[in-house]
Amino acid sequence: MLNNNSIYNDIGQLLFNIAPDGAKTVIMKAELSQEGDHCKYEYDYINQSNDTNWFSGGARANTDMLNYLVKLRQYFIDNNLTNGNPIWTGCIVTVDIEKAKINIDFKYEPFIEE
């Protein structure tokens, strides 16, 4: 049975797997299209010196992440977790590599600058 915890775990594991060496935190910003057929991404990480740098997730990671985000958004819709409001269109995912914790902040309007 699919649940939101398994999707959160998949998202966290993917970000953990693509994290650059020396990363202690990974931050991904993502904006999904309404149709769920494409997504804009920004990937950043914080290293041991607390410097923030960007990195590329890569084509495979972007495709997998798109699939996870589409599943998560559909889970919200299927389980009436929107409380009658429009569904989220993006998110900021933060993974604390050292503590193995994930946080997802959902966004309801565009926020990634072109």
TrEMBL record:
InterPro entries: YezG-like_sf. Gene3D superfamilies: BH3703-like domains. This is DUF600 family protein. It comes from Candidatus Schmidhempelia bombi str. Bimp.
